[in-house]
Amino acid sequence: MGGAVVLGITFIGIQFREWHNHPYGLAAQLYSSLYFTITGFHMAHVAVGVVVLFLLLLWTALGYFDERRCVALTIGGLYWHFVDVVWLFIFTTLYLTPYLFRGAS
Questions:
Q1: Residue 24 has what DSSP assignment?
Q2: Is the separation of the CB atoms in 86 and 10 below 8 Å?
């Protein structure tokens, strides 16, 4: 869980750096508006996931969970995996798909 927290924070940092280095702004064109909106919502979900994972890590270290009291771990893990799977679709749509259709026109 500690590794996932670090990777989530790293992702947020990379996303902010990428936003800063983009040649276009939020309202420059439809693609840029969609790009910033979609990646912004995803980054917000990652931030929530980082907080949840940090709390689960802390509660685990304090011995809060046992065989009968572990639902929060399951839900936290499912949320984090949901955010990961969503990123696969976002990455494919926003980062890979534009290169597939460049030569088609």
A1: S
A2: no
- Given a contact cutoff of 8 angstroms between Cβ atoms, the answer to whether 35 and 70 are in contact is no
Single pTM value for the model: 0.86
Q: Smallest Cα–Cα separation from 90: which of 38, 33, 47, 44?
A: 38
Tens-digit pLDDT profile for residues 59-87: 999 999 988 899 999 999 999 999 999 99
Residue 25 belongs to a domain with what CATH number? 1.20.120.80
List the domain range (segments joined by +) for residue 83.
2-100
End-to-end CA distance of the chain: 46
Residues 6 or more apart whose Cβ sits within 8 Å of residue 26: 32, 33, 36
Q: Please count the structural domains in the chain.
A: 1
Q: Tell me if 83 sits within 8 A of 49, measured CB to CB.
A: yes
